[in-house]
């Protein structure tokens, strides 16, 4: 589903954010991306969406070499990818319904089909009864669930999340992770960047650990004394 082949990213100014990074994610895997602040997690996610391009190496998404995609073809790539951010990036002058419908309106869906999909997405995240509300009146956990509904409303094959539980308490973080697990259970490939090592450890999934732009770990974290590589 995803392949990084010797990928390096140097930002203008000379700083190398990623160095010769290679890994593969299988279709329908759920994987965590960890690493210190500045390790390169966001950069890695941005390369998959072509928000940035590699300085060297190749990134493949669904067999497509992203180096071969022109700017004109970027929307077609992004249709396959749902993205969840830490700060939700919700519009606070629109209802919950309108926020979730936004990607479909951009795609040109007719209102009936859009309505059906928006309600299905809100139902999946348990917020069907909040569709008319403004997101500003919702709790942090609910706002994050609106962000997830918006990310999955056009049924992406790949779900990327950048610190999706960064502002949430442990119980809400577990809830959000179990939502990601539900999408993964129906075949969506999920990659989640997270600082929350305790949470990641509990979930016993594959972890890609970045350190200074390099892949320092690829395996399952069990506990501090027993770390098993895949
Ligand atoms: N647009 C940019 N221009 C220049 N340098 C950048 C840019 N974006 C990121 N960097 C640098 O690249 C490195 C990796 O940044 P990145 O945001 O990918 O790390 P991160 O692991 O996501 O960090 P955090 O956990 O703090 O969000 C950092 O040193 C950062 O300062």
From TrEMBL:
Name this protein carries in UniProt: Cell division ATP-binding protein FtsE
Recorded GO MF terms: ATP binding; ATP hydrolysis activity; transmembrane transporter activity
Stored Pfam families: ABC_tran
Domain ABC transporter: from-to ranges: 2-230
Keyword Lipid metabolism: no
NCBIfam families named in the record: FtsE
Membrane topology note: Peripheral membrane protein
InterPro entries linked to this entry: AAA+_ATPase, ABC_transporter-like_ATP-bd, ABC_transporter-like_CS, ABC_transpr_LolD-like, Cell_div_FtsE, P-loop_NTPase
Organismal lineage: Bacteria, Pseudomonadati, Pseudomonadota, Gammaproteobacteria, Cellvibrionales
Function: Part of the ABC transporter FtsEX involved in cellular division. Important for assembly or stability of the septal ring.
A cellular component term, taken from the record's GO annotations: plasma membrane
Superkingdom: Bacteria
Subcellular compartments: Cell inner membrane; Cell membrane
Family listed: Belongs to the ABC transporter superfamily.
Keywords linked to the UniProt accession: ATP-binding, Cell cycle, Cell division, Cell membrane, Membrane, Nucleotide-binding
GO biological process, one term: cell division
Assembly: Homodimer. Forms a membrane-associated complex with FtsX.
